[in-house]
Amino acid sequence: MEPDLFTAAAEERQEKDPTGSPLAVRMRPRTLDEVVGQQHLLKPGSPLRRLVGEGASGPAGPSSVILWGPPGTGKTTLAYVVSKATNKRFVELSAITAGVKEVRAVIDGARRAVGGYGKETVLFLDEIHRFSKAQQDSLLPAVENRWVTLIAATTENPYFSVISPLLSRSLLLTLEPLTDDDVRGLLRRALTDERGLKEAVTLPEDTEDHLLRIAGGDARRALTALEAAAGAALDKGEAEVTLATLEETVDRAAVKYDRDGDQHYDVASALIKSIRGSDVDAALHYLARMIEAGEDPRFIARRLMISASEDIGLADPNALPIAVAAAQAVAMIGFPEAALTLSHATIALALAPKSNAATTAIGAALDDVRKGHAGPVPSHLRDSHYKGAGKLGHGQGYVYPHDLPEGIAAQQYAPDELKDRTYYAPTRHGAEARYADAVEWTRGHLGRKRS
Ligand SMILES: Nc1ncnc2c1ncn2[C@@H]1O[C@H](COP(=O)(O)OP(=O)(O)OP(=O)(O)O)[C@@H](O)[C@H]1O
Q: Example GO molecular function term (predicted)?
C-alpha cells in the first residue's frame, strides 16, 4: 500500500467522520493553542511558532525537527498542527513498519506534489530511533534539499539513536511529561467537548484520580481509558463512570499489547518459555506479537542470547553464536527486515536440544560461595612469580599437565573443603552427550571421588 495514499485516506476519514475515530484522535488539538503543557516550546517567537508560520518574516524555518519526549505527550499532535497551520500535506510513517522503500515513496510523492500543484509535505516519522543508520541516511537528501519538512519523533535520547548528520541538520525540541493537571484538563475537555463525549457521562473525583494514576502523564492512555470506561458505564445504563466500572474496563483496554506496560514482560516471558518448551509455533506467535507491538528488536535479541545459555547451553553450542549474530544483525538492519533475523534465531533456539546444565552449575557454585564455602587456594596453585613465593611454598609440587601423556595431572585444584564437590551435571541431550563423556573421563583422571 502506498503510504501517503493510506495516510491521506485516513486523514480524510478522520475529517469527514470524526465520530468513527478513537476519542484520543478526535480530541487531537487542531491549533497550538489547544496543546496543553509544553509551554517552553510554545512561547511567542519560539521555533515551533515560527514553524507554523507565526511571525514568519525572518529566515525560513528548519526543514527537519526532532521531537524527543515520552509517549502520549503530543509529538504526533505537534507535527499534525504544523502541517495544518501551514496548509501542507501530512504524511505519517512509523519506523516500526516502514523501511527505505516507504521513505523513498513518500519523498517521490512530495516532489510530485510540490511540482504538480505547489503543495508541500510534512513527513512525520514516528519512532525514528528504530531506524538503522542506513535507513536514517535515506532521509538526508530530502532534508538537505527541502523536499519535505521532516518531523521525527523519538522516545529515546536522540544523541544516541539519531545519526549525527541528521541531528546536526535538525532542530531538536524536547517535550516534557504532562503533569496530572495537564491530563486532568484534557479529560475534562473530552467529557464536554462536541468532538468528545458531549456530556454523556460524568466523572467523579475518585475515578478521575485513578484515571490519572493509570495514565502516568500519557494523554493518549488517559483518553483511551476514559473512552472505554464511559462506554461500559453507558452500556450498564449509568450516567456516572464509577471507580468499579473504570477498574473493570482498564484490563480490557489494556488487552492491546502495551510495549511499556506489564504485557511487555509477560509476552517476552511467554516467548522464552515457548522456546524452552521447544514449541516453535508458539514461540513464533509471541515473537510476532512483540514485533507488532513495536518492541525494540535489540530487546528481543538480548532475550534470545540469554535463552541460548540458560536453556540450551552445551546441548547445542551453536545456539549462543546464532543468538549473538542475530543481536549484531538486528542492530545493523533495523525493522522491518530484522524480523527475519529474529525469526531465524527463534526457530533455531526453539528446535535446539535443551539443557539447563550451565545455569544450574553456576547457580550451585555461587550458592556455595555465598554460604561461605571457599577456603584457601591450595598452595601448589598459588602464584609463584614474586620474590619470596618460594619461601612460602607457593607453587611447589605443582604438576604441569602438558608434561603428562593424557594432558591431565591427578592433582587437587579446588580448596580442601570443596575437593569432591561437583557442580556440572550434564544432560545427554544433543551435543552435551560429548561433554557428559568428557566430564566423566576428566574427573576420573583427576582422581576425583564421584559425588
Ligand atoms: N500536549 C497535548 N495537548 C493536548 N492533547 C494531547 C497532548 N499530548 C497528547 N494529547 C492527546 O493524546 C493523543 C495522543 O498524543 P500524540 O499522538 O500526540 O502523542 P505522541 O507524543 O505522538 O505519542 P507516541 O510517542 O505514543 O506516539 C492526541 O491525539 C491528543 O488527543
A: ATP binding
Euclidean distance between CA atoms 57 and 11, whole angstroms: 30
Domain match, 232 and 340 both: no
Q: Whose CA is nearest to atom 25 of ligand 1?
A: 71
Output the CA 37–ligand 1 centroid distance in Å.
11
Considering the domain architecture, whether residues 146 and 109 belong to the same structural domain is answered as yes
Residues 7 and 142 in one domain: yes
Question: Among 290, 316, 351, which residue terminates a domain?
Answer: 351
427: domain CATH number is: 1.10.3710.10
Distance of CA 64 to the CA centre of its chain: 24
| Angle, helices 219-235/243-253, rounded to nearest 10 degrees | 120
Name the residue among 137, 132, 154, 146 with its Cα closest to residue 76: 154
Co-location of 110 and 233 in the same domain: no
CATH number of 246's domain: 1.10.8.60
Task: Identify the CATH number of the domain in which residue 311 sits.
Answer: 1.20.272.10
pLDDT tens digits for range 369-386: 988 998 888 888 887 776
Whether 360 is in a domain gets the answer no
Mutation to probe ligand 1, out of 7, 28, 122 (largest number of atoms < 8 A from CB): 28
Do 117 and 34 have their domain in common? yes
Confidence of residue 92 (pLDDT cuts 50, 70, 90): very high
Residue 3: its pLDDT value, please?
37
Across the chain, what does the average pLDDT equal? 86
**Least confident interval from 13-22, 148-157, 239-248:** 13-22
Question: What local confidence, expressed as pLDDT, does residue 284 receive?
Answer: 97
Per-residue pLDDT at 255 exceeds 50: no
Per-residue pLDDT at 346 exceeds 90: yes
Ligand 1 atom closest to 24 (CA): 31
Q: Of 61-75, 161-175, 255-269, 283-297, where does mean pLDDT reach its minimum? A: 255-269
Q: In what order do the strands lie in the sheet with 89-94?
A: 89-94, 121-126, 149-154, 64-68, 171-174
Ligand 1 atom nearest the C-alpha of 79 is 18
31, burial (CB in 10 Å: exposed 0-12, middle 13-18, buried 19+): exposed
Domain residues for the domain of 91 are 3-174
Q: Among 152, 174, 196, identify where a domain stops.
A: 174
Q: Is the pLDDT of residue 17 over 60?
A: no
> How far is ligand 1, taken at its centre, from the CA of residue 209, in Å?
20
ipTM of this complex? 0.95
